[in-house]
Specification:
Number of domains: 1
CATH topology: Rossmann fold
Mean pLDDT: 90
Largest sheet: 6 strands, mixed
Order of helices and strands: EEEHEEHEHHHEHEHEE
Number of strands: 10
Shape: globular
Amino acid sequence: MDIQPQTPALIEAHHLQFEVVGAAGRVNVLRGVNLRIGASEVVGIVGPSGSGKTSLLMLLAGLDRASGGTLKVGGHVLAGMDEDALARFRRDEVGIVFQSFHLVPTMTALENTALPLEFAGDEQAARRAQAALEAVGLGHRIHHYPGQLSGGEQQRVAVARAFVARPKLILADEPTGNLDRATGQAVMDLLFSLRETLGTTLVLITHDPALAARCDRQLRMEDGLLVEDFSEVPAE
């Protein structure tokens, strides 16, 4: 199915395919995804486990390469970029929030948050990272290590790291999956408020119907395909 929002497209995928090779042979994880996501949209991707949601997010982040079709993110044709260019693309234009936080355990909250800026050679990395942590309510925890933080605090550090470079796109893969409901709600309130402040496009995977309902659009995946756009008005 083709999904056509009215806002200018930040993400455009045409017949996007992704296959992996395992012990059982080739598996078609994505079987021809057609997708457009507009700038500043909040899009929730839902569907059963194994439907291809995380694989789609990995392609959007440039962490995996498509097996076929075309993909353009922020004006970049990802298939034409080498690994160095993809690394710069992720550094400058994409923030990623994983379910399992992915913080460096030997780095403080401040050092973890500053990483994207350090990679970019930003001389103000520490100052900007501290401001980002203060924005997520962790100004008093900047020198603590991940092991000294609660799960909710670790995820807030991950959120601060994702938006500290003011990316065009934030991708979140089950960002509340390892959190209790109240903490998860607080983290998502934070992500949505940051999106409002920065105008960032937010694409998130979730199994939580209440969270998906907060998004501008809900896209459902099944068996490697996008099969439904819940923001569309049914035809009469």
